[in-house]
Amino acid sequence: MSFFKKIFSSEKKETLDKGLEKSKTSFFNKLNKAVAGKSKVDDDVLDNLEEILVTSDVGVNTTLKVIERIEARVAKDKYLGTSELNQILREEIAGLLSETNSGEATEFTIPETKKPHVIMVVGVNGVGKTTTIGKLAYQLKKQGLNVVLGAADTFRAAAIDQLQVWADRVDIPIVKQSMGSDPASVAFDALQSGVSQNADVVIIDTAGRLHNKVNLMNELTKVKRVMQKVVDDAPHDVLLVLDGSTGQNAFEQAKQFTAATEVTSLAVTKLDGTAKGGVVIGISDEFQIPVKYIGVGEGIEDLQVFNKYEFVDSFFK
After folding, report:
1. 165 and 86 assigned to the same domain
2. Is 209 annotated to bind ligand?
3. Whole-model pTM over 0.70
4. 225 is in an annotated binding site
5. Does the N terminus or the C terminus of the chain have fewer Cβ atoms within 10 A?
6. How is residue 273 annotated by DSSP?
7. Is the pLDDT assigned to residue 294 strictly greater than 50?
8. Where on this chain does GTP bind (predicted)?
9. 272 in a known ligand binding site
10. Which domain holds residue 25?
11. CATH code for the domain in which residue 142 is found
């Protein structure tokens, strides 16, 4: 299979490799124990591999698909050595993700449609939502795009302050009101500001509460409805931010949010500090929603466009 070719710059690839180091080390420590003393991929090896993938937070459904694909390879090739297992995993997981996730983007771009392109960002508190917005704004500005931020997470004063810090750091305008203001009103003002400034992108932060799904749904629906008074088809992207270090909890949050609102893309953060990087493979496969961005470090450049081939290549290298 010819999935793997050099796509990322060496610097970007190095950052990705480093960000996945803990996940990779944990996975291969388990895999090496599982195949110790074995020369061929047999039922025992496959059983152990299944357990390793599940405990690496790849998820049960995705794990079963991967095992089925490897079983088919074993049946077809009659003999597969354990020394080949790593390459087979890379190929079969990349193949699996190719079937369910379109796009091989490597750079931060927005569709060339009418301006402004409106991104509404959702996710529970603590997942790195505001940091992701700041880093995304920085990357889009680097592409020469005019960006406006809207601080519509008015439930916490800290959320507004944190977004202001990022706006100052990246040197882009922010629209905000006081804590407790109507989030839809902030979103409305942010879009009006974006239109008047001829902005290319408006990014709206929203409240990260999930304790009452009905309230969340109502609030996000209202924000959307009010935004459409300014830009009739806004938002163009509803980006859900998930904390990769929470493993299976990230799956659960994805289920909750996709039930509460229409999510169109995902960002998975904090992969550098965890051994649970396999969660990206599972989430990318299980939800019919593209993973658009991944966070692989604390630096401002460490938000990357998710490229499934580069990710799998780094994870299993």
Report:
1. no
2. yes
3. yes
4. no
5. N
6. G
7. yes
8. 123-130, 205-209, 269-272
9. yes
10. 9-99
11. 3.40.50.300
